[in-house]
Amino acid sequence: MDTILTSKRGQYVLLLGAGFVTRPTAVELDKLGVNITVACRTLESAQKLAEGLSHATPMSLDVNDLEALEKEIEKNDLVISLIPYTFHATVIKAAIKMKKHVVTTSYVSDEMRALNQDCINAGITCFNEIGLDPGIDHLYAVKTISEVHEAGGKITGFLSYCGGLPAPENSDNPLGYKFSWSPRGVLLAARNTGVYYEDGKKKTTPGSELMSTAKPYRIYPGYAFEAYPNRDSTPFRERYNIPEAQLLIRGTLRYQGAPAFIQKLTDLGFLSTDEIDILKKTSTEPPTWAEAFAKILGASSHSEADLVLAVAGKTSFKDEEERNQIIAGLRWIGVFSSTERIEPRSTPLDVLCASLEKKMQYEKGERDIVMLQHKFFIEWADGKKETRTSTLVEYGEPEGSGGYSAMAKLVGVPCAVAVKMVLDGEIKDRGVLAPVTPELSEPIRVKLKEQYGIELTEKSEL
């Protein structure tokens, strides 16, 4: 299995998924002459993804059909799983059976990690966490940490924040955000508990309060960001080999004011996944937003005055300005409307998502931005202290131009690079892997920089 997977028949890859990042992965592999079977649940999605590619064949495939999945994997050298992470273990098990390599951009879950020995026994590489976050973030964290350790220094603190956002001039709504896909995942992430190290102690922020802890975070003066912890950062002390770190937070960037607005949506019950009868689909006409909002809030009536009173009873505002901003934001969503009807989806979260999907899409000509910054607090053997930053700012191509969004490029291209390296035998390690060691991360980092111009700018402040 260590030989380069190239013969007269070429290299063959099965690409699972129809998400927005799959196109750059497919295009870059196609340019390199890799034969790709693009497999989606619907043939139409696969055909769209394969359009204009010289070495791509579209097909319909349901990953729940194990026999069909195994049959397709068997025909290929490697399978790329860009479907929801809950399906990865199923794909990896099928790949183990067929002795074929796997690449994903997702975090290694416990279920995936449990398959490590089976992958080793099958002689296959299962390479994960190679998109943007996780992915590019690992490459530059490992680079600086390794350099500092080799020079005898310590990493006493590490902050890493990443945000995929509309470009500032296109952030024209109360959330300062737009969606390339369903908003459900983004809103659910706002409910995750944040766990991190501060002053050497493990700190926890419950998901119900997470957005209220967001603080202004300065990267460049021209951007007004707020940052908050993202899930559990604590395993990265071990994963990045920085047991000395007293401060360790990996988190999310949003535009100023957005976290406060999402916190209010949480307080008002909008992120609830509990079913409410009035929000369910029936044979009768759906309720107006005002009627539905009254039920979600438990308001005495659905007049705007009573709804505003009920809002004040469910949440608090730091001042009159914030109150006015939040009420204006709710009005923008349409929740006070006595004419606009909801799209029935059973739960407050899903009804809200239905509305946001329509109001917060990227319009033609609009573009996105990705901002990623690591901040390293370094202590040298002689007692001197230094702060280093590694920063990436990437703007996407305008919507409708045929180019990549920044997010799609920065997830899809690293994935394609890792796939080619596995196929070419440049990544030889077997098992369930992620690029969190210099041996695995550095060759990918160099390729992305030299061949695609994807790199972080490093600066030092003594």
From TrEMBL:
Span of domain Saccharopine dehydrogenase-like C-terminal: 131-454
GO cellular component: cytoplasm
Keyword annotations from UniProtKB, A to Z: Amino-acid biosynthesis, Lysine biosynthesis, NADP, Oxidoreductase
Domain of life according to the entry: Eukaryota
Residue ranges that the Swiss-Prot or TrEMBL entry lists as coiled coil: none
Reactions listed under catalytic activity: L-saccharopine + NADP(+) + H2O = (S)-2-amino-6-oxohexanoate + L-glutamate + NADPH + H(+)
Domain Saccharopine dehydrogenase NADP binding: 13-126
Pathway linked to the protein: Amino-acid biosynthesis; L-lysine biosynthesis via AAA pathway; L-lysine from L-alpha-aminoadipate (fungal route): step 2/3
InterPro entries recorded: AASS (IPR051168), NAD(P)-bd_dom_sf (IPR036291), Sacchrp_dh-like_C (IPR032095), Sacchrp_dh_NADP-bd (IPR005097)
Presence of the UniProt keyword tRNA processing in the record: no
Gene Ontology terms for molecular function: saccharopine dehydrogenase (NADP+, L-glutamate-forming) activity
The keyword Acetylation belongs to this UniProt entry's keyword annotation: no
Pfam families reported for this sequence: Sacchrp_dh_C, Sacchrp_dh_NADP
A GO biological-process term: lysine biosynthetic process via aminoadipic acid
The protein's Enzyme Commission number: 1.5.1.10
Family according to the record: Belongs to the saccharopine dehydrogenase family.
Protein name: Saccharopine dehydrogenase [NADP(+), L-glutamate-forming]
Source organism of this protein record: Cryoendolithus antarcticus
